[in-house]
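If your schedule permits, I should be very grateful for your opinion on a structural question. I have a record of one protein: its chain in single-letter code and its fold written as C-alpha cells. Would you kindly read the sequence against the C-alpha cells and tell me how you understand this chain to fold? Thank you for your consideration; the sequence and its C-alpha cells are set out here.


***
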Amino acid sequence: MPDLTRWFIRTALVCLLVSLIAGVLQLIPGRWGAVLWPTYVHLLVLGWLTQLIFGVAYWLFPRSSVAGSHPRDRPGWASYWLLNAGLLLRVIGEPARALGARMDWLLFAAAFLQLTAGWAFVVNIWPRVKGR
C-alpha cells in the first residue's frame, strides 16, 4: 500500500473518531449543538469520507505502465496537506463563528484550501484514468 494511501486512511480514521466525539458533545445542553454542528459535518464528510475515498482511489487506480517508474506524487501529497489544512481551519473557524466571532476570512481560506485540494486530487488521478 502506498504511503499516501496510508496517510489518507489513517487521517480519515482519526477524523471519524474526532467527529464522533463532536457528535456526542452536541448533546450537552446549551449552545453546544449549534456550535459543533458545522464542525461535526465537516469532520465527518471531508475529514473521514473524502479522505477515505481519496486514499482508496489513489491505491486502486492503475499506475503508469512505465517499468520502474516511481514518479513523485506531489499533487497527491498536496491534496493531502491542503485538505487537512483547510479542515483544521474549519475546525477552528466554524465554532468561533457560531460563537459570534468574525471568522469569514478564516472560513474563506479553509474553503480555498479544500477546493485546491480537490483540484490537486483530480490532477493526480487524471492520468490514471485511461481507456482501453
